[in-house]
Each structure stands twice: as structure tokens, then as C-alpha cells.
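Retro notes
What went well: the complex prediction finally ran end to end.
Inputs used:
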Amino acid sequence: MGLWGCTAHFDKLNTNPMQLTEMTPATVGNAFARTQYEGLYSHPGLYQLARNLFFDYYSQYFAVRDAGIRSDRYVIVQDWIIVQWNCMYTVTWPTLKLVLETTADTDSEANAIAKIWKVFVFHSHTDFYGPVPYHEAGKGTTSIPYDSQRDIYYDFFTLLDEAVATLSVADPSRTPFGVNDMIYQGNIAQWRRFANSLRLRLAMRISAVEPEKARQEAEKAVAAGVMESNAHSAFMATNANVVHGLNVISDWGEGFVMSATMESYLKGYSDPRMAEYFSRGVGSGEYRGIRNGLTGEQLNSSPKNAAGAASNVGPRFHVSKQTDNPFFVMYAAESYFLRAEGALNGWNMGGTAAELYEAGIRTSMEQWGITDSETVQNYIDGTGLPIALDDYLESPPVSDVPVKFAADEATRRQQVATQKWLALYPDGIEAWAEARRTGYPELYPVVNSDNPDMPAGQLIRRIPYVDYEKQTNGAAVVGGVELLGGPDLPTTRVWWNP
Amino acid sequence: MVKLITFKCMEKKHAYQSFVGSRDLFRLLLVMKLTYLLTICCILQAYANAYAQYHVSLDVRDARIKDVLKEIQRSSAWRFVYHDDLLPDESRVTIKAKDQPITDVLTQVLKPSGLMHRQVNDRLIVILPSPEDGVQDSLVRGRVRLRDAAGELFTIAGVTVRVPGTALATSTADDGSFSLRLADTEATLEIAYMGYGTRREPLRNRTEIDVILDPETVQLEDVVITALGIPRERRSLTYAAQTLAGETLSNSRETNITSALNGRIAGLTINKTNAGPGSSNRIVFRGNRSITGNNQPLIVVDGVRIDNTPKAFADVALFGARDNGDGISNINPDDIASINVLTGPSAAALYGSSASNGAVIITTKTGRKDRQTAIGISSSYMWESPMIYPRFQNVYGQGEGGLYSAQSDQSWGPAMDGQQLADWTGETRPFSPQPDNFRDFFRTGGETINTLTLSAGNETLQTYLSYTNTYANGIIDGNDFKRNNINLRQTARLGKKLVADAKINYIYEDVINRQATGEANRAVSTLYRIPRNIDLADARDFETLNDDGTLTQNYWRPGSPSMQNPYWSIYRNLYDRLRNRVMGMVSLKYEFTPTLSLQYRTSLDYYADQVEERNYNDTYWLLTPGKGNYVVGNEASRLFINDLLLSYSTRFGDHWGLNLNAGAILEQYHSNGTRTNNNGLSIPNLFSLGNALASSSTSSLARTETQSLFAAASVGYRDYIYLDVSMRNDWNSTLPAGNRSYFFPSFGANVLWNEALQLPEAITFLKTRASYAFVGNGTAFNMLKPSFSIVPGGTTGLLLIDRTMRNADLKPEQTRSIEAGVDLGLWADRFGLSATFYKSNTVNQILTIGVPNPSGYAFRVINAGNIQNKGVELQLHAAPVAGEHFRWRIDMQFGANKNSILELDSLQKRPPLSSPDRIGVIVAEEGKGYGELYTRGFVRNTSGQIIVGNNGLPLLTDMSFHAGNYNPKWTAGISNALDYGPLRLAFLIDMRKGGTVLSHTQALMAAAGVAERTLANRESTFVIPNSVREDGSPNTLGVTPEAYWTHVGGSDPVGEAFLYQGTNARLRELSLGYTLPPALLSESFIKQATLSLVGRNLFFLYNAADGFDPESALGTGNNQGIEYTPMPSTRSYGLHLKIDF
């Protein structure tokens, strides 16, 4: 008993009426929308910290002009990388988990789409680190065990099976999540195709370690129907409150610019997408890249690295387009390149490697608005080679393969991977994963490494577990390192990358 | 309600020649006054009869009368007041009395010396000279009447009437009459009585005069307003309390009164945001207690808490901090009668929740009671200018790698030898240093404060009215500050038993374009890095208007990542805050009997803030598309407090006194806000909510309620032993039903040894005290259950889940504090020392700590921890010279605090206090202190050598380098006041030892090549001293300074290279005042006039930091110890004129 009567009103007083106290079917769409926005790391701050500062450099789409960005010299800056880890486990996954729980008994189609999305958001996450907390994540416990990447991938396939099974028998007129699904607006057929394409991506990822499983899953995916045209491609709609992060951060000065690797390929291939991907340096008036891993001194000591010399992103990634540039999720072109690689593996991919390779290029060109058939055909037939650069280090050509599909299988594999890399732009996360797996495209060695654990000439193989996690979930991290099968270093390869 | 008297006057050894105006008389008056106010009016009646019944026994032989009186005093409850001159050591007496009435005994003792005695009240007897026998027939007759607290007139014998400058003097008889023969009927009579001050009455040829004396107002030095507005005698306190007179604060001419506490309060650590006029301070007493919560004390005005929610925080998104002002900075220093600082929880225990951080208790002025109308004018003008500048190099100019570039925002270019180069404006001019391009940006700020006060009234009705207008121009063009304070206080005695007190205070405060600190875009941030050859005059032309109505910013590096034209920053990135605040209070007190009263009080503190942010198009780093952006935020908060206080005081037996206070409090807080972001503008630079590209709004809410019952008792035995007990129970809405009620007691005791024992003469006063307190506390609004919010986003809104794992079983926090102290006065208080030792432990602390993220949460709310603070507070005062014409008083204070985190959570031993900032992270670490700073450091081998990479540059650690603790080891202050006739010279030096500061400013300046330190080896290379290669071989790789400083400096710097100690000493205050001699004003309507020259924060005597003020704070949160491109600290100096009519 308090004063002036009672404290009976305290519980109500201590509750915010402007907030909801539980998740309901009525708000499940708002929650799912959040998992798309955050799961793609598309918010500008997230884009920078969880994508750009690491994977956009490790994929060598971009390099840095600002020496303070030490992640380009392989320093895993903990304050930055923690943002990805934190977003995944404290925003995307718990929100998605609530969506899965809320829809489990009420909306099986929505539940199926949420499962597909779970696979999508978790696969890039596990690819960064290797084993990660998965089955026990998001349950509010104080020590969360790690799962092996193999277990996680196998669960991905199971989830995709369940989801596709549900969507295959669903009423096609239903639109789960409706407009809150910012990717397909609840289009069940599109989601099914997305699930199959994702399955194809995952199958190819494990093709070196589990070739038979990979073949089965890949053939299952193609048979069920993967993305075949740009109409199938997945983009998240942007608007005033869901902006394209890259558009915003590209205006944050010249922290990052076109990489020398991009310059060597795009110019060597006379790639018509160059003007879409990049813009001319404001100072130089030219498309120019710089090498990854330059020190401040190197950056400052040459006018070739000076402010405005190198290229920023292309016009569609300009800040003014942040609300109408749809955010990339997965491109149809990628599926063709995956199928081309599958065909080279001898899998039944519904076409020859050459057909699929060319289809991939055509689809990508179309996606970027290059529709002139002669231009595209010239590109496909192109024999030009990546060029040597007039850059600060007088860099030699980054590679010696042309676009024109070669006769030998080894070159073909390289060409498929190289074209996929070019087509995936600006999705550095996927590009880095595939560069690790296939060893292609050929990339320039990172010039300097400030990370004693990471030699400069090598491609970084994974992100070591974040310090914060070691401090708070230390015993479980030890288990994770055991599952990793190697030391917790950036040179240790993840399971699918032997 | 409270008894007793101090009787320091008893032991005065250094009486002055002149009775009137001497310090001794002052004290006598004081004593009277207190007694009068606190007890007299009714107790007199109650005890008048009892008076005669007191009996004493005495047997003394040739004893000093003084000692006899002392002895009587010791064995009875009576106090004597007299002037030393009356009782020289040679007046001695022999007397033997057994159980005789005290009146008889006193008559016997005093009569031989020509003295008489008068009882003033139940406790106090005044010793006076007997009226002279055979007074001559006189020219002047008169009557003096005194007014009591109820407004009744009465007469008393012994009122002194004299003619200054002559030997002519007499005193009144019982009926108040006096007569005096004197020749000069134009003379002025001085009529004086203890507690009533001195009245000058010009005769103007009258031979009959009738004078009424009104009591003086309460003097602050001996009465302390404690928790809940309960006044207590300082001597009875069982804990440390430090008092500052309102005049001290007012004379320092600070717009934020907490700034004036700097250097004057032991145990205080203060950090300023330096964000221009009216900006916030972070004040912490006795160290930080709360790991993630508030560490600032309660602010109490006239007995009730006011809202002092800190609104200045580091904001990662801003890459800096924004100061929206705190609650206490709105208080008008000119309205303050006194500030009492309770540094420890013991003192504040009755305030309950949050009192663990101590309390600042402000008493504002009330109207006069003497039927006179006093009008006061106070005007001051202060100039303000930067007191410290960073050290720049002026040899090398714009460019990188030694090459000139007109588009560079770095100074790694060639040496500036006056060579002709095309600059960024396109003109070819000599390439020369501009050494003053930092300091020339700042203007001389100015601050005008005008106060008009009116104080009037009589014993039954008093009015105090004041209006203060503050207008200030910050040192940055466009940063202005306007404040209007209107304060009306009405106090009334309605009939014999009812006392009403009401106050309304309205504040209008408009802060125009207060600068944020931090890196991105800020004018000052750019200036810290401005290339050394850039002429500010060129930058003044900061924009071009385009045909489509948009603006283009003119800057040497268009689209720079974090800098822009500093003039653009201050004219085109605007941030205004407007506050309307009303603080009101009404209290009614009913005095059932002279010793029993009931008071009901209700108070309201309401404020509404509006924040408007306008950014013009082509502002670099604007996160929104479109042509500029506009953001409006509104926040209103209301703190509503009702309390009921029952007070009873009594005496029993001959030796016992008792005060009881009990009551109930209802405290309700409500705050809600909205924030609308236009997310871009359609029409360029039209700032309205309608002109939005995609407006989005969010709202916020907080509401809490605390209900309390409390009781406190203070028992005094013979006025030399006091015992305090208090208890309080709170019901707090922020806690779950099972835990929301919590009880906390406090205990205290003191002994006044100088009264209990016969001490050496030199010891005037000796008190020891000890207290123990529990303070309970709740938490913030809505911490128990998870909640989901909807924010704009997606197609129909995005749902935000709770990333904090809530705790439905939270228990109240508890601070247990123990303190002990001693107060010593020597040689008639010419020297005084006060020392307090304390230890406090905060347990069951409600923490929001980081948890493993795979749990699904970022944070968890827990009860945990044991934070200990122990330390010492010392205050010392001395009056080395105390002559009639020249007086010198020194006050010193010292506070040292040691903080230890004895225990945290079983899972989390090292939760970060802040999200990692770019230069460092602040963590709480079990086994260490609160506020440990971690930053990046150099990788070293086991023998401490720096390991370099293949490029010769040091390898760097992550945020794992322990930089130190941001809390100072100790703080101290010395203030001096020298009075020579009408002149007063005062100065204050304050010091702080230790406290780590990471200077992000220095890191940015180093990377930009503008810092003086970047000059070394500028045109060559150097090998990092004491360094080795990774394989252990000696390092011989040379690096250029540019390579080195861009490697270790910049936006995400190596804090180890920019680490400073906050040790500094400065002349905090200097003032010289001249008060017009009363003789000059005797015929004038002006009663008093003082003109002072005032200087604040004038210069460093010592500063361990390099070119910056280590006390600059990033905000008022717990995120301290990081200096991040703040405005330079300023010195101010000016004139203050004060006239009383």
C-alpha cells in the first residue's frame, strides 16, 4: 500500500501505450519487412559497417581512398564488424524467429517465405565466419553453442524443401505479407523461384566438399525452376524510409572508390556496364581505380591517388537516387552462371555451359540497361584482355582471360567465375564468398596488410570471431573453433572452401 | 521547530574596538536572529514562567565572570550572549549559591561589573551594560520598539543607542524608552540590537523619535536547509554539508550556476561541454556510482526537486555530441539566496530515490520583512574569448605527399615560401602561412545580464519579484543566447497560525545555433584542420546561388568526407532550441502550536523544448536526398510533486531537545516528445514541415511515479550530542509489484566536544560526526517487459523488437554509505577545518549490460554489482588578517575519491559503458575502477619495443590498449578574499590531478598535418624509435611523418599516441569590487552600490594537456574522457554593477 490510496495503477503507468506488448498476426508483416531491410544490411549505417567496410573491399569491387579505413589492409576492426554480428543476432534473427513462430499455425505460406528468408540471411552470415550459433540462437540463453557449417547448410536445404513444398501447393492468388514483403509483395511463384535459385547457390557452394549432395540439390533446383529472366530477379523496393544504403554512403566523401581490379577488367573488356557501375573521377575526368591495401603515405604520395582522381559509384547509386534505386538481393544472371558451372561439372543444368554462360552475360547486360544486341554480342565475342594500369603502382593486367568463352574447361571455369563476379556487382558479400570458393576472378594482391595474422599477398579466407563474442560467449566460441577445424584466423578456410 | 543557538560568541577572544559593524556583533546578531526566528514567538510564552524556576548551584572564588557563565551554560540549557568587551578577563567574581533561581544568581554575578541580563527567549539570555545611573536630563527622548515574528511590537531593555564617532551612548529601559543628551541635533543615531541589526536614524532636529526595528533576515552560515526544506542548525548536522552564499554565485556572473561551484565544493568533479552560452555541465560528487545510469546529483529548489534530466549526449550518428541544455542551467543565479551542497547520500537520504548521488539544495530569495521596499539592480557585461588554442605548424601548406594541391584539406604539401601558386579560389597568389586562421574565426563573445529585483513586505506579507534578462553572443558568429527569468515569490502569514508561501518562476530560453562537437561537418572541427595557407577571408565567400534556387557551397575540397567550409557550417547548418519553462510552488503551513506544525506543499516543474534543425542543400554529409533538410523535435516534461510535512519540536527535562518530522510525498514525472524529420526538402531551402520529401515522425514517452512515507527524528542532549534517525519507504512505479516497496533508514550522531569538555582556549569549536545511510532507488520507465514499436519504414511501417532482455523481477538499487568527519574551529574561528571520510557501496545496481548477441539480445537488465567509492573531503578556512580595515580570508577545499568495481555480474565482467567510439571505448571492469578507457595502441614485444610491419609503420592493437581512467584522482580549490576598506579582491584557483583524456582533436590535427608535432623530420623519413620488425630483427625502415601520422591519427586513431592526463590548475575566478562607502550614500536614496571587475577561467597555471582544456566534456552522460573537436574553452571578463535602493 502506497500513499494516497494505492499503487494499483503502477503497472499500467509503467507501460508505454505507444508500443505493442506482443507480436500478433496483424504486425507480422511489419516484422518481416524489418528482417528484409536489416537482413540485407541496407540501412546506410549497416551498409557501411556490415558490407562496405569489409566485403566490398575483399571482393575488390572497391578500394579505399581514406587510409583510416584499415579494414582494406586486412585489419578486422572490431567496432565495425561487431555491427554485422549484432544486427544478425539481435535484430534480424530474433525478429524473423518471431515471424516464424507467429505464422507457424496461422499462415503456412508466410511461414514458408520466412523460412526461405532465414536461409538467405543466415547463409551469408555463416559464410563470413564458418561455424556460428544457429539452432540455439535467439532463445535468450546466456551461453549459445555453435553449429558446424555443414549442419547449418544441411538445415538450409531442409528448410528450403519445406518451404518449396508448402508454396508448391499454395493458392497462387494468395500474397503472404502483402505489401510488407518489399521484395516480391507476397508473390508465391516468385518466392518459389527465389528458393530454387538460392538452393542452386548453396549447392554450388558445397560442390567441392560434398559433390554428390551438391549435384542432387543443384539438379533439384534447376528442375523446379530457377530465375530465368530479370523479371525474376529479387530486388527490395526502396522508398523514403527504406533507402538504398550504397546510395547514401557513396556520398560520404571518398572513403571508397573503384578498385584497380575493376578498372583492369572493365576497361580490358570494354565492358558497357562500366558507366553504370562507376562514374568518372571528379578531378581526373576518367574512370580510374586504385589498389586495395594502400597505406596513407602511398595514397597521399601520388596525384594518381589524389582526391577526385578515382571513380565513385555510378549514377544510379548517387545519393539523389537513394529512394528509387531498388536494393539488390539476387540476380537472375547469377543463376545462369551457376548453371554454367554446374554444366562444366557434368550436372544436368538444362543447357550447355556455353549457352548458360552467354545467357548469364545477356541477362546481366539487360539488367543494367544494356539492350543493344550488337553491343552485347560484341562483348560476348570479345577477345580483349584486362589491361595494365597507369596507376600509382603501374599495376600489370590483373588477368589474361578474355570474355570469349574458351575451349578448355579450366579457362571456362575462370571465365564463368569472372563474369559472375562482374555481374554480382555491387553485392560484395556474395562476390567475396565465390572468389574464395572458386579462386576466381584473379584479383590483385592486397598491397599492405596491417593484420599480423593475414599476409598481404593472400586472399582473406574468413572473418575471425568477434572479440565481443569471445568476451561474452567465450566457452561456446572455443567449441566453434573446434568445429572450424583450424585456428581462429583470417587465413583459415571455412568448411565449403577446402 | 528547531531549537538552539550557537554561542561561538561566548569565546570570542579578539573583540574589536568598534561595537557596531564588527564581525563579533554580526555573530551576536546572528545568534539572536536564529533563536528568534526558529523558536521565539511562541516558546517565549511557553517558557516564560519556567524561566524563573530554573535553579543553579555555584561555588566559585575569584573566577572570571566569563568562566562562571560558561559553567552555568554547561550545566543548564541556557545560552548567554554578550560582547567580549563587557567581560574582560580581569572582571572576576566570588559567589556561593545553592539551588538558587538563575535570575538571582546572574544578578549577583553581573551587578558588581555594572552589567545586567535580559532573557530573550526560553534559551537565551543577553548580557548588557546596566543603564547608567543618573542620566542627565536630555535633549532627545525616544522609544524603540521591536517587531516579533508575528508582527507584534514589543519593547525590551538594552537596545543600544549611540552617536557614532562620539562617546555618547545609552540603552533602552524595559519600556523601550531612552534619553540622550547631546548638543548636535543634526546628528544621526545608531540604534542596534542583536538580531535586529543596526539602524541609522538621522535626528534632523527632532527631540522625540519613535523607532521600530525589524528582525534581520536569516543568516545562512548557521542554518542549513536540509532535505525536504527542513532547516537545521549547522552544528546539529551529522554529515557533511557545504554552503555557498548566493552572492558568491551571483558575483561570478556565470549563466549556469553549476559552473560557479567549480573549485568551491570539496568532492565535486565538473566537466563542461563548452558549447557556448548556457551550455551544460556534468557534476558528480564523490565519484560515479551508477554504471549505466545517472551519476549527477539531485537538484532541489526551495525544498522540491526540479527536473535536471541531462540532455547533452555523445551521439555516434553525429560523430560527436549535441548539448540541449540541462535543467539546472535555467536557474537565475541572481535569485539564489544560498546553495547548500550535500555531497553524500547520508545528507540526502530523506530525498529517497536518486539521492545516492548527493544533492544541490538551492534556496531562493524571499521578500523583506522590515516594511521597507528594496529595489536592486544588477548589471553586468562580460566579454568572452577562447582561453586556449591548439598548436599549429606554419611551415607546410595544403597538399599531400609534399605536393601542392589546391583541393586538399590536408597540410602535407610543400613548404610555404611565398611561391606563386593558384589557390582554391582560382587566383594565383603567394603561398604563405596564415598562422591565425584558427583564432580569427572566433569573435569576442559578450554577455549582458540585467537583473531588477524588488523585495518588500512586513512581518505578515513579503513579496520578492525579479526579472533577469540574459543576452549573450557566443564566440561563434550566429550563436546567440537569450534568457528571460521572471520570478515572483509571495510569502504570507495569514492570521496567527497559517503561513503561505507561493512562487512562480517563468523561464524563456532561446539558444540559437549552439554548435555541436565532433568531427563531421562542424565549423570548429574543420578549423582544427584548416590547411595552414588558407586565408579565412577567402572562405567567407561560402556559397553561390544557382538558377534553380539551390546553393553551391564554396570549399577547397568539394564534397569532402568530413569537412566543409566553416562559414557554411555556421550559417547554413542551423540548430535552434527554444525552452519555455514554468516552475511553481505553493505551500501552506499550519502551526497548531508553537511546536507543532503541518505543511502541505505542491510544486510543478514543466518545460517544453522545441528543437529545429535546418540544413541547406549542398551540406556535405547530409544523409537525406533532396534540397536540404528540416527536423523539428518537441519535448515536454512535467514533474509534479505533492508533499505533506508534520513537524514537532519539544524539550524535555533540563537537557533534552527533540525534533520530529514526518510526512508523505507523491512525485509524478511525465515526459513525451515527438520528432519529425522531413527526410529532404522539395523546394530548396524552404524550411517547413509541409515541404517534405518523405516526412517521418517518431514519439517518445516516459512516466514514473513514486509515493513515499518518511519520518525523521533528531535528539539533542545538552546541545552537545545529537542523534539523527530517519526512515523512508518508497513505492516506485518502475519496479515490479513485489519489489516496488522498499524501506531505507539512516542514522547519524555528533558530539560537540568544545561544549562537552573544557578544551584549550584556542579551540573554539570541535565537532565529530558520523552517519550511515541506506538509499534505495528504482529504475527508468518501462524496463520490466518487452515491447515492440512501429517506426516509419517498409511499406506500412517496420516493427522494432526489443533488443534488451527485460527483467520482470528487478529489485531496487541500494546505496549504503558511511561517513565520518570532524569540524574544527580555532582561535575564534580564525581557522577552521572540516574533514569528511566516506565510503559508499552501491549494490543491486540496475544495469543494462551487453550480453552474447546470439542470445537474441544486445542487452540485459540485471540487478548486480558492488561499486565502491571511498574518499576524503577537506575544507579549510583561515582568516590570516582580520583587522578593522584589512581582512583576508582563505577557503580551501580538496576532494579525493577512489572508485572500485568490487563485483559486477556473474556473466559479464567487463561491460562497455559506451558503444565503441572512434578513438576509444569506456568500460566498467570488475576489479578496476569505473570509467576505464580503452583505445588502440601499438603492438609491442615483451620488452616493450614497438613492432612494425613491412612498411616500417607500427602494428596496431584493437581497442584493447588500456589508456587509464577518466576520473581525476583529486580536485582542489583555493579561494581568497581580501577586503581593504571598500575594496574587495577575490580570486579562486582550482586544480585537478589526473584523469585520462583521449584527444581526438589532436589525432585529427596530426593526420591532417597541421599539428605542430608533425614538423619533426618533415622533409625526410625517420625510424620509429625503439622498434623492431615482426621477426624480432631491429627496425631500420624509415617512414615519413605523413605516413606515420596518417597511420596513427585521423578518424579512427591510435589513442595511445593522443593520450593526456587531465592534470591542470587554473585561475578560475578573479574579481575586484569597490563598494561605495556608506558615508557617501547617507543622504542618498541609494543604500549600497558595488562595482566589480570580474574574470572567469582566466588562464592555466599548469596544463598537462596539449593545447586544449582537459575538462571539456563530450556530453553530460557517462561517456567522458574523450575530447572531440569541442569549441575552445573560453575566458570571460567584465564589469558587474550592483545597486540597492
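What we learned: The radius of gyration of chain B is 33 Å.
What to try next: split runs per interface for comparison.
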